[in-house]
Design brief:
This is PPM-type phosphatase domain-containing protein. Pfam families: PP2C. The chain is an alpha+beta fold. It folds into two domains: about 130 residues, no CATH class; about 230 residues, Phosphatase 2c, domain 1, CATH 3.60.40.10. Helices cover about 40% and strands about 20% of the residues. The protein contains twelve helices and 17 strands. Strands 5, 6, 7, 8, 9, 14 and 15 form a seven-stranded antiparallel β-sheet that branches. Strands 4-17-16-10-11 form a five-stranded antiparallel β-sheet. The protein has a three-stranded antiparallel β-sheet with strand order 1-3-2. A hairpin with a 3-residue loop joins strand 10 and strand 11. Helix 2 crosses helix 4.
Length: about 425
């Protein structure tokens, strides 16, 4: 084989990528008459927020990654496309005055206009790659060569998520699942994974904000330490705390009446880190372990009640639940700027992972308040053992179990595998 020959596996990836580019071009041509220009109009003021220069990069990364996933970009090419497209759109955004909102000082951007700009410019970027002059360059967008066994493992789905609006008028839950978190944000630990579940209230904007901003803020904190070997439990605790508090501070400045619970998981090779505010939960499951990692922040909890009252708030029983100032039924959240006694300081736990740990389940109270943990564990194990069951259907089964038990709330469930599916044995 000549030195510049392309290995068979890489050639197969390239064929898949060319097919993706061709399909994108075909779809773009089919709807060309319906494409809205970049000068777009937001729907209503309460469905968007202003994005500052400090927040812009995180929103771009989140929006571009969503485009890569929703358009079915081959996994082997997503990461370099993300980084190169982000770099290009950062430059292009300087000239996209239609995305800006009129404010004094540095430019700020309307979220919906920014997302539409990303959708339009991402497609433009992809279509440029279909030009004949770009053919020889396409292989440069692929991941670096890996051993065949590692490549195979990375293709195995390692998480599943599902969410449903259910009975409420609006869907205010959000979740983020980043199996390639370390690569996306260029961390020293390229294999780290990040998952978050957010239960919004008084609108979904705080939850939406957290899904895009928290991963970036946490990554920034993790990259602040130049010596990964020196990472300790306290380092991760402080990284999560700083991320939550900064997200809350920045969102609070927008004066939007919205808040969200948050439960986030950072998974490394042998450690699990969990941080949370509010009552969304995380259940760690293994052959000898069924551990609910979250102690919910509820106003009636003696420690929380004492803290709330010391801050000048009250805990009142209203509408069948204990609430801060008779309004909010959680004692901690991101957002809720009008409730000073409600704080965003997270609690934190870390667990050393071993071969006995099988999976992690994250969910909002629409799941946990109605489905016993024993049923969740049994459902996941039985489903994983059934070769005919798709991984994506497992989270849907948990949603259905909550609905069958009369859950009236939005419901979100995320199942994170801590080892390949074929290594998880049914209890």
């Amino acid at each position: 084989m000549s030195s510049d020959a392309i290995p068979a596996s890489k050639c197969a990836h390239l064929v898949e990528f060319k097919r993706f580019l061709a399909n994108t071009a075909e779809k773009a041509a089919a709807i060309s008459e319906e494409v809205v220009s970049r000068s777009c109009v937001t729907r209503t003021a309460n469905e968007t927020y202003k994005v500052s220069g400090e927040e812009r990069h995180a929103e771009l990364v989140a929006a571009i990654w969503k485009q890569l996933e929703s358009r079915g970009c081959p996994l082997h090419f997503r990461m370099k496309l993300l980084h190169r497209c982000t770099q290009q759109l950062e430059q292009d955004l300087c000239f996209a005055k239609e995305c800006e909102v009129t404010v004094e000082g540095p430019p700020q951007y309307d979220l919906l206009k920014l997302q539409k700009f990303v959708a339009s410019e991402f497609e433009r970027y992809i279509l440029k790659l279909t030009d004949n002059s770009e053919v020889d360059r396409l292989k440069d967008f692929g991941d670096e060569a890996e051993p065949e066994n590692e490549c195979h493992l990375k293709k195995e789905p390692m998480h599943t998520s599902a969410a449903v609006k259910n009975k409420p008028r609006k869907m205010e839950d959000r979740c983020v699942c980043l199996d390639r978190f370390g690569e996306m944000y260029e961390l020293s630990d390229k294999n780290s994974r990040f998952f978050g579940v957010f239960d919004g209230h008084s609108g979904s904007l705080s939850a939406t904000y957290a899904t895009s901003q928290l991963p970036q803020l946490l990554a920034d904190q993790l990259k602040a330490n130049p010596e990964p070997a020196a990472f300790s439990s306290d380092f991760y605790r402080n990284a999560f705390e700083s991320s939550f508090l900064l997200a809350d501070e920045r969102f609070t400045q927008k004066k939007i009446t919205s808040g969200t619970t948050s439960v986030c998981a950072l998974v490394t090779k042998d450690q699990l880190y969990i941080a949370w505010v509010g009552d969304s939960k995380a259940l760690l499951v293994g052959k000898r372990t069924q551990l609910q990692l979250v102690k919910p922040h509820k106003p009636e909890n003696p420690d929380e009640r004492k803290r709330i009252e010391a801050a000048g708030g009250t805990v009142l029983y209203a509408q069948g639940q204990w609430r801060v100032n008779g309004i909010l039924n959680v004692a901690r959240s991101i957002g809720d700027y009008s409730l000073e006694a409600v704080i965003a300081e997270p609690d934190f736990v870390d667990v050393q992972l071993n071969e006995a740990h099988d999976f992690l389940v994250l969910g909002t109270d629409g799941l946990w308040d109605h489905v016993p943990e024993s049923h969740i564990i049994e459902t996941v194990y039985e489903s994983l053992a059934d070769p005919s069951m798709k991984l994506d259907d497992i989270s849907k089964l948990l949603i259905e179990a909550a609905k069958e038990r009369d859950s009236q709330d939005n419901i979100t469930a995320v199942v994170v595998l801590l080892k390949p599916r074929n290594q998880i044995e049914y209890l």
